[in-house]
TrEMBL record:
Keyword Nucleus belongs to the record: no
The protein's annotated pathway: Amino-acid biosynthesis; L-tyrosine biosynthesis; (4-hydroxyphenyl)pyruvate from prephenate (NAD(+) route): step 1/1
Identification of the protein by name: Prephenate dehydrogenase
Entry similarity comment: Belongs to the prephenate/arogenate dehydrogenase family.
Catalytic activity entry: prephenate + NAD(+) = 3-(4-hydroxyphenyl)pyruvate + CO2 + NADH
KW Hydrolase (keyword) present: no
Residue stretches making up the Prephenate/arogenate dehydrogenase domain: 3-292
Domain ACT: 297-367
Its EC number(s): 1.3.1.12
Gene Ontology annotations of biological process type: tyrosine biosynthetic process
Gene Ontology molecular function, alphabetical: NAD+ binding; prephenate dehydrogenase (NAD+) activity; prephenate dehydrogenase (NADP+) activity
Amino acid sequence: MRGTVFVIGLGLIGGSVALAIKNTHRDVRIYGYDINDNSAQLAKALGIIDDICDSVRAGAEEADLIILGTPVKQTVQLIGDLSRYSLKKNVIVTDVGSTKIKVTESAKQLEKSGATFIGGHPMAGSHKSGPAAAKAHLFENAFYLLTPTQQEEEKKLAELKAWLRGTKAKFLTVSPETHDKMTGVISHFPHIIAAGLVHSAKRAAKQNDLVARLAAGGFRDTTRIASSSPEMWRDILLHNKDELLLLMDDWIEQMAEIKRHIQASDSDSIFRYFSSAKTFRDELPVRSQGAIPAFYDLYVDVPDYPGVISEITGYLAQSRISITNIRILETREELYGVLVISFQSEEDRKAAEDCLADHTNYGVYIM
Ligand SMILES: NC(=O)C1=CN([C@@H]2O[C@H](COP(=O)(O)OP(=O)(O)OC[C@H]3O[C@@H](n4cnc5c(N)ncnc54)[C@H](O)[C@@H]3O)[C@@H](O)[C@H]2O)C=CC1
Ligand SMILES: O=C(O)C(=O)Cc1ccc(O)cc1
């Protein structure tokens, strides 16, 4: 591809898309703008962008592709700004936001300027934010939803996919309505429930300080997404309000039903509640990335002596296996501890399992 790319909002997602574009289109210049000057400077220092633009207008009017990497509320405001500038006639404008109805509605303002807006949502990420967390391969094998709203955009859609080829994501085209409905149930709503579970534990912890210590293992993993950015999720919830209210009604009904079964000690119905959830969940694809990324965790039983972590990471480093996270489960405080090591992919986890089996006699297992 030829031309100039302008990324507005140089955080985790905007930065990762910029890196993926740079990897495939080496001659293209990528300019960036971020309201937080430190983030813009860091993005340049990390090679995410070639140069910083002083204003949105300066970058937007020169660009062939504009990527809005901002939180959804700001994305809507920025689209309003873009509609007042003299954009290039053939420019494609896209975003990375987690909601699509309100964003694509606001993008109608861009039509009169001749720009083509195609909404986008790379469905992978993490609870981290900022340019330092950006990675070129963040979206590999993840779904990347695109929401063109007009038939005649076919050529432009192909062009956008060509720009984004380096993400190695799987592109799917859906309507903004379908997008918000699907992501409502599999991504937005789980964030509400995860926060709700944490609130329950917080209340219980006030009564008994053992609760927080016991929550270190499975509970912490189950509620990982409750550590995501509160600002980002507030804005996502407000954008997808109607769908989320429906899902909440459904949830309340479901809770009332299981409550009735427990009250009646109806063991068959309680069994069926878990069993049908298990059947559906066990059939979900495990290898492809969904909206909430799979964990590739390896559990290692290790003796509790100083230096054990560096011993293990040393073996993995020798075998050139990258880890994304490492922590000790704090539920066992005797002679042995459990080290949980997270990897980027199933391949890395398998390689680590083999590597540790070769070098140590520690118990290694996958949950
Ligand atoms: N975090 C995640 O896992 C995922 C997030 N998304 C979506 O991606 C978007 C960005 O999220 P992240 O990259 O995670 O957030 P982030 O906080 O890492 O990055 C957002 C960046 O936008 C900048 N920004 C905010 N307002 C701005 C403005 N008016 N002008 C210029 N820059 C501005 C911030 O300073 C920040 O650097 C959001 O719309 C979110 O819904 C989509 C997929 C996954
Ligand atoms: O951290 C997680 O597990 C996520 O949920 C990542 C995520 C956040 C927002 C999205 O729109 C898509 C994926």
